[in-house]
Amino acid sequence: MPLMFYKKPALVVYVTCGDPDLATTREIVLAAIEAGADVIELGVPFSDPVADGPVIQRASERALRHGTSLPHVLTLAAEIRQQAQSTGLIVFSYLNPILQMGVGKFCKVARHAGVDGALVTDLPVEEAGEYLREMRTHDLSPIFLAAPTSPDERLKRIAGASRGFVYAISRTGITGARQQLAEDTQKLVRRLRRVTKLPIAVGFGISSAQQFAEVGSFADAVVVGSAIVETIERNRGREAAAVGEFVRKLTLASVN
After folding, report:
1. How confident is residue 254, by pLDDT bands cut at 50, 70 and 90?
2. What is the mean pLDDT of residues 202-225?
3. N or C: which end of the chain has fewer CB within 10 A?
4. Among this protein's residues, is 61 annotated catalytic?
5. Which of 52, 214, 230, 239 is catalytic?
6. What global pTM score does this model have?
7. Which entry of 19, 41, 134, 230 is annotated as an active-site residue?
Protein backbone atom coordinates (compact mmCIF):
# COMPACT_ATOMS: atom_id res chain seq x y z
CA MET A 1 0.00 0.00 0.00
CA PRO A 2 1.51 3.38 -0.96
CA LEU A 3 1.96 5.84 1.86
CA MET A 4 -0.43 8.74 1.35
CA PHE A 5 -2.67 11.17 3.16
CA TYR A 6 -6.37 10.77 2.47
CA LYS A 7 -7.38 14.08 4.01
CA LYS A 8 -5.89 17.43 4.90
CA PRO A 9 -4.61 18.04 7.43
CA ALA A 10 -3.70 14.45 8.14
CA LEU A 11 -2.71 13.47 11.67
CA VAL A 12 0.53 11.59 12.26
CA VAL A 13 0.75 10.10 15.77
CA TYR A 14 4.03 9.01 17.36
CA VAL A 15 4.23 6.39 20.10
CA THR A 16 7.24 4.89 21.87
CA CYS A 17 6.71 1.16 21.46
CA GLY A 18 6.89 -0.84 24.67
CA ASP A 19 5.80 2.00 26.95
CA PRO A 20 4.35 0.79 29.22
CA ASP A 21 4.44 -2.59 27.40
CA LEU A 22 3.93 -3.89 23.87
CA ALA A 23 0.37 -5.14 24.44
CA THR A 24 -0.68 -1.73 25.71
CA THR A 25 1.11 -0.02 22.81
CA ARG A 26 -1.01 -2.07 20.41
CA GLU A 27 -4.17 -0.95 22.23
CA ILE A 28 -2.99 2.68 22.18
CA VAL A 29 -2.26 2.60 18.44
CA LEU A 30 -5.60 1.02 17.58
CA ALA A 31 -7.40 3.58 19.76
CA ALA A 32 -5.55 6.41 18.00
CA ILE A 33 -6.50 4.99 14.59
CA GLU A 34 -10.13 4.63 15.60
CA ALA A 35 -10.11 8.24 16.82
CA GLY A 36 -8.82 9.54 13.50
CA ALA A 37 -5.04 9.12 13.24
CA ASP A 38 -3.97 8.70 9.60
CA VAL A 39 -0.36 7.62 10.09
CA ILE A 40 1.34 5.98 13.07
CA GLU A 41 5.01 6.43 13.81
CA LEU A 42 6.20 3.38 15.74
CA GLY A 43 9.09 4.65 17.83
CA VAL A 44 11.92 2.21 18.49
CA PRO A 45 13.29 2.83 22.00
CA PHE A 46 16.98 3.67 22.05
CA SER A 47 19.47 4.05 24.88
CA ASP A 48 20.86 7.38 23.67
CA PRO A 49 17.95 9.32 22.16
CA VAL A 50 19.85 12.57 21.56
CA ALA A 51 17.11 14.15 19.40
CA ASP A 52 14.37 13.55 21.97
CA GLY A 53 13.24 15.63 24.90
CA PRO A 54 12.72 14.35 28.44
CA VAL A 55 9.21 12.97 27.86
CA ILE A 56 10.28 10.59 25.08
CA GLN A 57 13.57 9.85 26.84
CA ARG A 58 11.65 8.60 29.87
CA ALA A 59 9.38 6.53 27.65
CA SER A 60 12.41 4.96 25.93
CA GLU A 61 13.95 4.11 29.29
CA ARG A 62 10.76 2.40 30.43
CA ALA A 63 10.45 0.46 27.16
CA LEU A 64 14.08 -0.65 27.25
CA ARG A 65 13.66 -1.91 30.81
CA HIS A 66 11.02 -4.26 29.41
CA GLY A 67 13.43 -5.43 26.72
CA THR A 68 11.68 -3.78 23.75
CA SER A 69 13.77 -4.00 20.58
CA LEU A 70 13.44 -3.35 16.85
CA PRO A 71 12.29 -6.93 16.10
CA HIS A 72 9.53 -6.50 18.70
CA VAL A 73 8.45 -3.27 17.00
CA LEU A 74 8.27 -4.98 13.61
CA THR A 75 6.20 -7.81 15.07
CA LEU A 76 3.90 -5.21 16.59
CA ALA A 77 3.62 -3.49 13.21
CA ALA A 78 2.47 -6.75 11.63
CA GLU A 79 -0.18 -7.21 14.33
CA ILE A 80 -1.44 -3.65 13.83
CA ARG A 81 -1.49 -4.05 10.04
CA GLN A 82 -3.82 -7.03 10.36
CA GLN A 83 -6.39 -4.77 12.03
CA ALA A 84 -5.72 -1.48 10.21
CA GLN A 85 -5.38 -1.91 6.46
CA SER A 86 -5.42 1.71 5.31
CA THR A 87 -3.43 3.44 8.06
CA GLY A 88 0.14 4.46 7.28
CA LEU A 89 2.76 2.73 9.43
CA ILE A 90 6.19 4.28 9.81
CA VAL A 91 9.10 2.90 11.82
CA PHE A 92 10.77 5.81 13.64
CA SER A 93 14.24 4.79 14.76
CA TYR A 94 17.81 5.81 15.34
CA LEU A 95 20.31 4.21 12.98
CA ASN A 96 22.06 1.90 15.45
CA PRO A 97 19.20 -0.63 15.94
CA ILE A 98 18.82 -0.89 12.15
CA LEU A 99 22.55 -1.46 11.67
CA GLN A 100 22.48 -4.15 14.35
CA MET A 101 19.71 -5.97 12.48
CA GLY A 102 21.26 -5.25 9.09
CA VAL A 103 19.81 -2.69 6.69
CA GLY A 104 18.71 -5.26 4.13
CA LYS A 105 17.11 -7.56 6.70
CA PHE A 106 15.36 -4.60 8.33
CA CYS A 107 13.82 -3.53 5.02
CA LYS A 108 12.77 -7.09 4.14
CA VAL A 109 11.15 -7.74 7.52
CA ALA A 110 9.51 -4.30 7.58
CA ARG A 111 7.95 -4.83 4.16
CA HIS A 112 6.72 -8.28 5.16
CA ALA A 113 5.17 -6.77 8.32
CA GLY A 114 3.17 -4.26 6.28
CA VAL A 115 5.25 -1.21 7.19
CA ASP A 116 5.05 1.63 4.67
CA GLY A 117 8.27 3.47 5.42
CA ALA A 118 10.88 4.54 7.92
CA LEU A 119 12.35 7.68 9.41
CA VAL A 120 15.89 7.28 10.73
CA THR A 121 16.37 10.39 12.78
CA ASP A 122 20.19 10.45 12.89
CA LEU A 123 20.89 9.31 9.32
CA PRO A 124 21.88 12.28 7.12
CA VAL A 125 20.62 12.06 3.56
CA GLU A 126 24.22 12.53 2.38
CA GLU A 127 25.21 9.20 3.99
CA ALA A 128 22.09 7.22 3.15
CA GLY A 129 23.15 5.51 -0.10
CA GLU A 130 22.91 1.86 1.01
CA TYR A 131 19.79 2.55 3.06
CA LEU A 132 18.05 4.20 0.10
CA ARG A 133 18.94 1.34 -2.23
CA GLU A 134 17.48 -1.23 0.16
CA MET A 135 14.39 0.89 0.79
CA ARG A 136 13.76 1.10 -2.96
CA THR A 137 14.33 -2.63 -3.40
CA HIS A 138 11.67 -3.40 -0.83
CA ASP A 139 9.26 -0.63 -1.91
CA LEU A 140 9.48 1.28 1.36
CA SER A 141 9.21 5.05 1.75
CA PRO A 142 12.29 6.76 3.21
CA ILE A 143 11.33 9.90 5.13
CA PHE A 144 13.86 12.56 6.05
CA LEU A 145 13.79 15.54 8.39
CA ALA A 146 14.04 19.06 6.98
CA ALA A 147 15.06 21.80 9.41
CA PRO A 148 14.60 25.58 9.24
CA THR A 149 18.40 25.89 9.20
CA SER A 150 18.80 23.67 6.11
CA PRO A 151 20.04 25.58 3.03
CA ASP A 152 17.95 25.35 -0.14
CA GLU A 153 20.36 22.94 -1.82
CA ARG A 154 20.05 20.50 1.08
CA LEU A 155 16.25 20.80 1.06
CA LYS A 156 16.32 19.75 -2.61
CA ARG A 157 18.43 16.72 -1.73
CA ILE A 158 16.15 15.75 1.16
CA ALA A 159 13.06 16.13 -1.01
CA GLY A 160 14.64 14.14 -3.83
CA ALA A 161 15.49 11.22 -1.54
CA SER A 162 12.12 11.17 0.25
CA ARG A 163 9.01 9.23 -0.61
CA GLY A 164 5.61 9.43 1.04
CA PHE A 165 6.13 12.82 2.63
CA VAL A 166 8.77 15.22 3.90
CA TYR A 167 8.93 15.83 7.64
CA ALA A 168 9.46 19.52 8.34
CA ILE A 169 10.83 20.23 11.82
CA SER A 170 9.00 23.20 13.31
CA ARG A 171 12.14 24.29 15.13
CA THR A 172 15.69 23.17 15.81
CA GLY A 173 16.62 21.26 18.96
CA ILE A 174 15.03 18.28 20.70
CA THR A 175 11.46 17.07 20.59
CA GLY A 176 8.94 18.24 23.16
CA ALA A 177 5.64 20.05 23.51
CA ARG A 178 5.77 23.84 23.25
CA GLN A 179 3.23 26.57 23.97
CA GLN A 180 4.12 28.51 20.85
CA LEU A 181 5.29 27.38 17.44
CA ALA A 182 8.39 28.84 15.87
CA GLU A 183 7.66 31.68 13.48
CA ASP A 184 9.79 30.19 10.72
CA THR A 185 7.72 26.98 10.45
CA GLN A 186 5.49 28.42 7.74
CA LYS A 187 8.53 29.80 5.92
CA LEU A 188 10.13 26.34 5.88
CA VAL A 189 6.98 24.80 4.41
CA ARG A 190 6.95 27.46 1.67
CA ARG A 191 10.61 26.72 0.87
CA LEU A 192 9.90 22.99 0.65
CA ARG A 193 6.91 23.56 -1.64
CA ARG A 194 9.31 25.16 -4.13
CA VAL A 195 11.40 21.98 -4.38
CA THR A 196 8.89 19.11 -4.00
CA LYS A 197 5.36 18.03 -4.80
CA LEU A 198 5.37 15.55 -1.90
CA PRO A 199 3.06 16.23 1.04
CA ILE A 200 4.72 18.10 3.90
CA ALA A 201 4.17 17.09 7.50
CA VAL A 202 5.14 19.45 10.32
CA GLY A 203 6.21 18.18 13.72
CA PHE A 204 8.27 18.82 16.87
CA GLY A 205 6.40 20.70 19.58
CA ILE A 206 2.74 20.47 18.54
CA SER A 207 0.71 19.76 21.64
CA SER A 208 -2.79 21.22 21.40
CA ALA A 209 -5.87 21.23 19.21
CA GLN A 210 -5.30 24.92 18.50
CA GLN A 211 -1.76 24.28 17.26
CA PHE A 212 -2.96 21.32 15.20
CA ALA A 213 -5.52 23.51 13.45
CA GLU A 214 -3.01 26.34 13.01
CA VAL A 215 -0.35 24.14 11.40
CA GLY A 216 -2.97 22.25 9.42
CA SER A 217 -3.94 25.48 7.70
CA PHE A 218 -0.64 25.52 5.77
CA ALA A 219 0.79 21.97 6.03
CA ASP A 220 -0.53 18.71 4.60
CA ALA A 221 -0.10 16.82 7.85
CA VAL A 222 0.67 17.45 11.50
CA VAL A 223 2.87 15.20 13.64
CA VAL A 224 2.07 14.92 17.35
CA GLY A 225 4.56 12.99 19.46
CA SER A 226 5.61 14.22 22.87
CA ALA A 227 2.06 15.26 23.77
CA ILE A 228 0.87 11.72 22.99
CA VAL A 229 3.68 10.13 24.99
CA GLU A 230 2.99 12.48 27.90
CA THR A 231 -0.70 11.54 27.77
CA ILE A 232 0.32 7.89 28.10
CA GLU A 233 2.64 8.70 30.99
CA ARG A 234 -0.05 10.61 32.89
CA ASN A 235 -2.84 8.06 32.45
CA ARG A 236 -1.54 4.78 33.76
CA GLY A 237 -4.16 2.07 33.54
CA ARG A 238 -6.23 3.89 30.90
CA GLU A 239 -3.58 4.78 28.35
CA ALA A 240 -5.52 3.75 25.24
CA ALA A 241 -8.71 5.53 26.28
CA ALA A 242 -6.80 8.72 27.14
CA VAL A 243 -4.94 8.74 23.81
CA GLY A 244 -8.19 8.12 21.96
CA GLU A 245 -9.79 11.11 23.69
CA PHE A 246 -6.80 13.34 22.94
CA VAL A 247 -6.62 12.32 19.28
CA ARG A 248 -10.34 12.92 18.88
CA LYS A 249 -9.93 16.48 20.17
CA LEU A 250 -7.15 17.10 17.66
CA THR A 251 -9.07 15.77 14.68
CA LEU A 252 -12.21 17.68 15.63
CA ALA A 253 -10.18 20.89 15.70
CA SER A 254 -9.35 20.54 12.03
CA VAL A 255 -13.00 20.46 10.96
CA ASN A 256 -14.29 23.27 13.19
Report:
1. low
2. 92
3. C
4. no
5. 52
6. 0.93
7. 41
